[in-house]
Amino acid sequence: MAMKFGNKLKLLRSMRSLDQDAMSKLLQVSQPVYSRYERNEKEVKEEDPFLERVSEVFGVSGEWLKSEDNTTTIVYENGSIASGATGTGIVGNVENYYAVPKEFMDAHIRQQELMEKLLEKLMGS
User: Fold this and answer.
1) Per-residue pLDDT tens over the stretch 5-17
2) Which of 4, 49, 50, 62 could pair with 55 in a Cys bridge, judged by C-beta atoms 3.0 to 4.6 Å apart?
3) Is residue 34 left, alpha or beta, with left meaning phi > 0 and alpha meaning psi from -120 to 50?
4) What contacts 11, CB < 8 A, 6 or more positions away?
5) What sign does the dihedral 7-117-76-90 (CA atoms) show?
6) How far apart are the C-alpha atoms of 37 and 5, rounded to whole Å?
7) CB-CB contact of 96 with 30 (8 Å)
8) 71 confidence band (pLDDT: 50, 70, 90)
9) Which domains does the chain have, with CATH numbers?
10) pLDDT at 78
């Protein structure tokens, strides 16, 4: 499943243990508008001030926010990355890897994804 903008918002919100009301106040939008973003019902545009606020408040890359990837790897503005695990829609713990080169972390994540697929196959899932 691709991580869309709304999924990434939920990940960032979960990392800070915030509810939607607190998150909407932090990002200066109404709770209903925030909820629409998180449910991917409101499209985020290239020059959307909301996108810029999310990037600034959480220190994450705007490119990461806009991209639709299938990992929970977070790319920060300072070049550091973090990786988390998702289960059945529940965000897992996030570990930070500040001094690890992106290429190494990408290879590590790919290796873990392959291992998960192998385990699922062996377990008959």
Assistant:
1) 898 899 888 888 8
2) 62
3) alpha
4) 3, 72, 74, 84, 91, 94
5) positive
6) 8
7) no
8) low
9) 5-99 (1.10.260.40)
10) 59
- Phi (first) and psi of residue 81, to 5 degrees: -135, 160
For the chain, what's the residue count? 125
How far apart CA 5 and CA 9 sit, in angstroms, is 6
**Short-list 68, 15, 14, 11, CA closest to 43:** 68
